[in-house]
Write a structure and sequence with these properties.
It is built from 1 helix and 17 strands. With 229 residues, it is mostly beta strands. The protein folds into 2 domains: 91 residues, Immunoglobulins (Immunoglobulin-like); 111 residues, Immunoglobulin-like. The longest helix is centred in the last third of the chain and has 8 residues. The chain is elongated. The mean pLDDT is 84.
């Protein structure tokens, strides 16, 4: 299986939550070293039942000879630890030994609020122009004090990472929420001299401060921004 990257990594790899409307996990594995006669992979998912992890075959995936493979496991439950491994099968139905097992537990998915902008920011054809600050925030949630937040801004389409910020703890009088302010100086350094268009996406992830195997990701929201007249 592909080794899971840190939540704070710029490029995300390995088992992870997905920035989708439902509660989904993506599982990734490397191509088999003897893939010439390989026909498929069988993906198994396990859950703990009565102190035992019970695995079932959830999907057969056609083998890709040249690339790593991923599968999106959709419609899962928040708070359940899921375990995954794969078995490779060749054209003669010979099966490999099982891969290593990876696991992941989804936290409550953050729900984004609309961007808050300062009074002197204005819109031109739906594009934020010359903002002095932007406030990225979520609705209140119940993920708990062990979760930190990650703000990601990427170029729409190319997935180029434009900005990344990690905060370990957050809490207000009403409970837990994310409230991240990006000021004018930083915004100008990120966007003012870019010549690749004005369209970006942002999302907020939750990451367990003590475990690589727990987290969640909001859906993407679009952001259009530029400096000038």
């Amino acid at each position: 299986m592909v080794t899971r990257s840190l939540e704070t990594a710029e490029i995300e790899k390995g088992i992870d939550a997905l920035p989708s409307p439902s509660n989904d996990i993506v599982v990734m594995w490397h191509k088999h070293p003897q893939s010439i006669n390989l026909e498929k992979y069988i993906l198994y998912r396990g859950e703990e039942i009565s102190n035992q992890i019970i695995f079932t075959n959830i999907f057969d995936i056609e083998a890709n000879f040249n690339l790593d493979t991923l599968h999106e496991d959709k419609g899962l439950s928040v708070g359940t630890m899921y375990y995954y491994y794969i078995v490779a099968v060749d054209e003669n139905n010979n099966r490999s030994i099982p891969s290593d097992t990876v696991k992941y537990q989804l936290l409550e998915k953050p729900q984004l609020e609309d961007l808050s902008i300062s009074n002197n920011t204005y819109l031109v054809n739906g594009v934020l122009t010359n903002p002095s600050q932007l406030i990225f925030r979520t609705l209140q949630f119940t993920a708990g004090a062990s979760a930190g937040s990650i703000l990601r801004i990427e170029k729409l389409g190319s997935r180029e990472l434009v900005y990344f910020e990690y905060i370990r703890q957050f809490q207000n009088a009403d409970g837990f929420a994310v409230h991240e302010i990006v000021g004018e100086t930083l915004l100008q350094s990120l966007f003012k001299n870019r010549d690749d268009g004005n369209f970006y996406e942002w999302r907020i992830d939750l990451a367990d401060n003590f475990s690589l195997n727990r987290g969640s990701e909001s859906e993407w929201n679009e952001l259009s921004i530029k400096w000038g007249n």
